[in-house]
Amino acid sequence: MAEFKEISPNASAGAKLTNWFENRFPTAFDAYRVHMSEYYAPKNFNFWYIFGSLALLVLVIQIVTGIFLVMHYKPDAARAFESVEYIMRDVPWGWLIRYMHSTGASAFFVVVYLHMFRGLLYGSYRKPRELVWIFGCAIFLALMAEAFMGYLLPWGQMSYWGAQVIVNLFAAIPFVGPDLALLIRGDYVVGDATLNRFFSFHVIAVPLVLLGLVVAHLLALHDVGSNNPDGIEIKKGPKGNRWSPDAPADGIPFHPYYSVHDILGVCLFLMAFSAVVFFAPEAGGYFLEYNNFIPADPLVTPAHIAPVWYFTPFYSMLRAITTEMMYALIACVVLAAAFGVLKGRMPALFKGAIVVAAAVGVALMLAIDAKFWGVVVMGGAVIILFFLPWLDCSPVKSIRYRPSWHKYVYAVFVVNFVILAYLGVQAPSPIGERVSQVGTLFYFGFFLLMPWWSRMGEPKQVPDRVTFAAH
Global pTM? Predict the structure, then answer.
């Protein structure tokens, strides 16, 4: 048992109260010191580093507003839509809670996409932060599941038919597909059983997983230390600063310096968030589709079914996989295998394995329907992010010190992702199909060819210590 810390009888009432709690709950105060006041972060963070704390803020907003919505929502196919209308019209401030929750869903993906892009820019997934990145990708995957299941709950036209389309995609999986789709739906069609399943997962199961992953993400980050725009490990540099002789010389305490830094970001975010909630909660039909204000009708199919904007890049990739696109993918597999065999420095046994694997892959691609491969591509677009730490072979971490043309590659990647998102919202068209097919090839090419192109060019000289200019 730890010894009680004594305090002067002349201390202030606040100091005495703090001392009383610290003596009885020292673990909380130790955690505060480890993760806040004595956690030394690099002193050169820029505005890109606010999105992690903003994601945590939005998570809190979603949990709190979700609790209030659950008080009045009815997970019943006959009453779900009416209960949402009741919240909007009759529950005091119910409209505000509902709009905060719906806007928060889109805001969550905005800040998470920007947070992930910052990691991509500065190499925050590189050694020793591979596990931090993997936990982050798992959070993204859980967030997608949470959003998809929550999307069905309003039981509007787009909710119903969007769930119908996505769940039916699982039926394309050979052998187990139909049974898997039936298990997810709980019935042969999307109905009351599906709504109850999705409600349970959206309210209880997935949030618990999400919270556990967020804690693991933060603990793993604070164990290895934060990355910075220079991609330099401050723990390996000189020690000693004004706060502690054992702290990194280029580090500053997270609190109060970066907590104040994040508060500024929170204020700016809340201004934008409030503007959307009060003046444009539907965001022109992107945050809340107009068809979702119509009760779900299994007998009337909307003219154009599309998911919410944050799923549309992956939905575009799904739609891009047509029968003729399969021939392009087969050509890519054959060319990749030929390149590996002809240029790879490996034993003949491995080269033979590559040829056999390519032959089996081509045979499966010809034998199985393109719809299944569309599902594989859509899932693979997310799963491939988990392997980024081992795909990037650049000798430097940060984009600052990579060859200048790397910035254009990243810029094209962002533009391509935005175009795929836009095309996913639009109705199918021949031109849109071609563009999405090219965009899909570029998306996967960016990652799969990264071991090759990330090593190209002469990197700039990386400084020994972080660069920082006071502002």
Answer: 0.94
